[in-house]
Write a structure and sequence with these properties.
The chain has 8 helices and 3 strands; from the N terminus they run ββααααααβαα. The chain is of the alpha+beta class.
C-alpha cells in the first residue's frame, strides 16, 4: 500500500491514501484501521486550509495526489486556487474517499510506550503444584 505524504511534524508523518488503496479493496476495515481513519479526520478538521495553502510543497503534493487518484478533479488540480484544492481535500477526508493516516515520524519524535502488563501471581493451587510437586487433584483437595 503506497501513500502520498501530506505533512510531517515532530510527532507524526501524515500519509494520504485513496479509500480503495487503504482498504486494499476490502469493504470492511479492521478496528485499528477504523480508528486510524477517525484520527486522520480529526487532524484534518483541526487544520486551517488557508495556512496549509501557504506551503507550496504541500499544495503540490495534494495536487499530484488528487490528479493521480481522482481524475474528475483534473481541472481543479491544474487551475484551481491553492485554498480550493486544500478545502476539497479536507472535504474528501470527511467523506472518507481520501484517508489520512498517521505513521511514525521519520525524524523520531516523542514515542509513547505502552504500559507494561502487570505480573500475574500464581494461584494457591498452582503454587502448591510447583513448590511441592503435588498433582492437580492433591492440590485441589
Amino acid at each position: 500500500m503506497r501513500g502520498t505524504e501530506l505533512k510531517t511534524d515532530s510527532l507524526q508523518r501524515w500519509m494520504m491514501y485513496s479509500k480503495d488503496a487503504y482498504g486494499g479493496g476490502r469493504i470492511f476495515l479492521t478496528t485499528g484501521q477504523k480508528q486510524a481513519v477517525e484520527e486522520g479526520k480529526k487532524f484534518a478538521q483541526r487544520a486551517y486550509a488557508d495556512v496549509w495553502a501557504k506551503d507550496a510543497h504541500l499544495v503540490k503534493r495534494v495536487r499530484t495526489f488528487l490528479g493521480q487518484h481522482f481524475y474528475w478533479h483534473y481541472r481543479l488540480v491544474k487551475t484551481g486556487a491553492d485554498l480550493e484544492v486544500l478545502e476539497t481535500l479536507q472535504s474528501m477526508i470527511r467523506g472518507e474517499s481520501v484517508v489520512l493516516i498517521a505513521e511514525q515520524s521519520r525524524t523520531g519524535g516523542a514515542g509513547i510506550d505502552a504500559a507494561p502488563e502487570p505480573e500475574r501471581l500464581p494461584s494457591f493451587r498452582e503454587s502448591l503444584m510447583t513448590s511441592y510437586g503435588m498433582s492437580y487433584d492433591a492440590a485441589t483437595d
